[in-house]
Design a protein that fits this description.
Keywords: Hydrolase. The chain is of the alpha+beta class. It contains 4 helices and 6 strands; from the N terminus they run αααββαββββ.
Amino acid sequence: MNVTAGQLKPQPLPREKLAGLSGKETLEMVMNGTLPAPPFAQTTLIHLVEVEEGRIVFAGQPDFSFLNPMGTVHGGWIATILDSAMGCAVHSTLKPGQLYATTAMTINYVRPLLADSGEVRCEATVVYAGARMATSEGRLIDGKGRVIAHGSESCLVFDAR
């Protein structure tokens, strides 16, 4: 994602603005450019494409810079897009004034991802959203509809104060 006219420079989200927004509202504003994308999004070539309460879709473009010594996309990049989607699925359920932090993540890698695979999609949904704990699961799918990896995540939900 390049910064062009009319786009905000990637940066951490302003806490004072987030305090009055639900998680879904915050993510919608990031997706439509009203709030800036986080800095890592530009580096990792990952961006939000769909936001619903309890469901998120990210798209990503693996490229040469993400290759490991074997010539496949590094598992850390795959983990990053899965963590982003699964965490944001939880984020989409938060009330104004709530934050979350990932407490555990499990990933199953089922096939290699190549740099020339094209754009991938990562869809995640909330499995459980309680007062203090939430869980989600996600799948990373390549352009041919094949599952590359899938996982689950647990998050602690807490007040921003």
